[in-house]
Amino acid sequence: MKTAKRKRKSDWMTxxxxxxxxxxxxxxxxxxxxxxxxxxxxxxVIRNKVNRMVKDDQDTYREKILRSFKGNPKRFYGYIRNLQxxxxxxxxxxxxxxxxxxxxxxxAEILCDFFKEVFVREDDTxxxxxxxxxxxxxxKLADITSAFSRDKIMxxxxxxxxxxxxxxxxxxxxxxxxxxxCASEISVPLQFIx
Length: 194
Description:
The chain is an all-alpha fold. The protein has helices at 15-33, 37-67, 73-83, 104-118, 137-147, 150-158, 176-181, 183-193, and strands spanning 93-94, 100-101.
C-alpha cells in the first residue's frame, strides 16, 4: 500500500498563507473546469491576495533572520548561501609544468607557491628601533605574550558554543566540540605556539 507523501511546511510561510494557497488552487481548478469571467475574477482576487501574503511572509522571515544574527550567525550565513545562484570553488589549477591539477593537496601547494612569490620579506636588521608609537620591540613582544596567556586561550576555547555537534571541522581538521572539551589540555601547547 502506498502512503501519501506529506508536504513539508515551509520555514517562513505562515499557516494562514498556506490555507490561502490551497484556496487559490481550488479557485484555479474551478476556473479551468468552468471558464467564466466570474470564476476568473474570483481566482484573480485570491491570487493577488496570496502574492501579497507570500511577500509579507518573506519580508518577516528576512527581518527575523537579521535580528537573530548576533545570537545565531550560522542561520544567517546559511540563508545567504541559499540565495547565491552561483556556487564558487577552486576547480582546476595549472602547475608550473603546464599540467592541470584537481587534487586538493596539489592545488594547495600551487597556491602556496604563488603567494610565496608575491610575499615581500622585509629586512629585519632594525629590530630594536622604536616605531612612531614610541614602543620598543621588546615592549611589543611583552604585550603580545600577555595577550596570549593560558587563561585567555582557555576562556576562548570554552566559549565555543556547546551546540556545535552539527558543525564540521575547520581547515585544521579539529572539530570545535573537541577543542572546547579539551580546553585545559590544549591551552598550554597553544600558548607556546602563539
